[in-house]
Amino acid sequence: MLSVLGLALATTLTGTVASANPGPGTIRFEGKITATTCPIEVVNPGDGSIGNVVNMGSIEANRFTGIGDELSGKSFALRVNDDGSCGLTSGGAANTAKVTFIGAPDSSGDYFGVTPTVDGAKGVAIVIKDQTGTSIKPGDASAPYPLVEGGVTDMVFNAYYRSTLATVQPGAASADVQFVVAIN
Question: Transmembrane region positions (predicted)?
Answer without folding.
Answer: none
